[in-house]
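Hey, I'm writing a tutorial for new members on how sequence and structure tokens pair up, and I'd like a real worked example in the thread rather than a made-up one. If someone can provide the structure for the chain below, I'll link this post from the tutorial.
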Amino acid sequence: MSQTATEHSSAPALRHIPRRYVALVLIIVAICLLGALVIVRDNSSPGSTSTTETLSPAPASLLATIAAVPASVFDTVGVGSPTVPVTALHATGGAAPVWQADASGGTTRPVVFFYGAEFAPYAAAERWPLVLALSRFGTFGQLGLAQSSPTTAFAGLSTFTFWQSSYHSHHVALESVERYGTLNPTGARYLGLESPNGREATAVAAYGSGVNSFPLVDVANRYVLNGSAFTPGALVGLTQDQIAGYLTSPTSPLTQAVVSAANEISAAICAEDGQQPTAVCGSKGVEAADDALGIAPPT
């Protein structure tokens, strides 16, 4: 009985609330709902990082294995890859200024620019020779593990990502843009990771096949490759550790493809950094790549 009386006595009070307050409450509720939608929506535009994208750092042991590929393997392979054809970088003709980055002491270093996407299988393949080549000139402080998309051709390739990576070298600077990740929650678009700055966008426009064509490797605006040096099929079914393990065997078709491409990237870097370090730039493997790329021997 008392409960019924309470309910009836409160009803008239509600009818006396001014309409402007009711309208204000409805506006506040609508704003809160809109804010919630913004918070939970998928981040699908390049230029910001999705909170659902996480970095899996490559183990130090894996990076050490890659950095320790014997010089004899580079020299034995040279640019010979009879089983898995390799597409070489090509010279740009020097129309654009040399791309350099400032270093300590007022010196400069040539810039190696990589434009890729984690989902893309051709970018997955090209990171292997690029990481191998760069490991001859410096060290990675951090490099992520990645798999290409499981729903494209050459699905699920084991590779790396330059997203949130760090690289240290006295000879060369690395700039990278991983435009998209591998996450595709809506089935319509991969989540955006990074966007190129002005200089990087100019390189993509000049040497790439479009803003959504991956990958592009640009060595100082002097030597470029649009696409991967070899077919991604060479990596199918292999883990990162297995691929790195093959790189000690110069008779392996996979090794020949990766090392040939790495020698050519190394030769392009050497041509722009004053032929340093000598142990790399004066090696038989790099000299063979010089010949293949038409790079004149140092005087």
